[in-house]
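Just scan this pair:

***
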Amino acid sequence: MRVRQATPNDLESLFELNNQISALHYINAPQSFVAPSEEDKTFLANALADEKRLILIAEEGQQVLGFITAHITQNETISFLIKDPICRIGTIVVDENQKTKGIGRLLMTEVEQWARAFGAVQIRLEVMEFNQAAQQFYDKLGFATNSRLMMKCL
């Protein structure tokens, strides 16, 4: 298995994996997410073209097994927040048929190395309350809850 930077040639594989995670989120949190659609392909194509965004894929042979997106932010305006670079994970998804094989851990390790190279002092991500499996995965990697995003439907 190897990890490499995604290219526009990976769009279809990214789209297929993204549909898995999008469907999971839509089924479990329809108040926040829409059903997967072709619009997602445009979003992914734009993300691939964004030079500030990292998209890594894990593959074996020609099969894409998972991907992760990340970018670095740095607060320059809010006086009471740290000013250090922060790596923000956008999406991580491992093919439903490939889970528990270390793919997610490998992708996270690669992003952590990338983030360190850019001087990031933290990695942050958002995980939905319904996604207990993802929460346990992040717990094992040493992540801790830092805040809680709350909502109220009107």
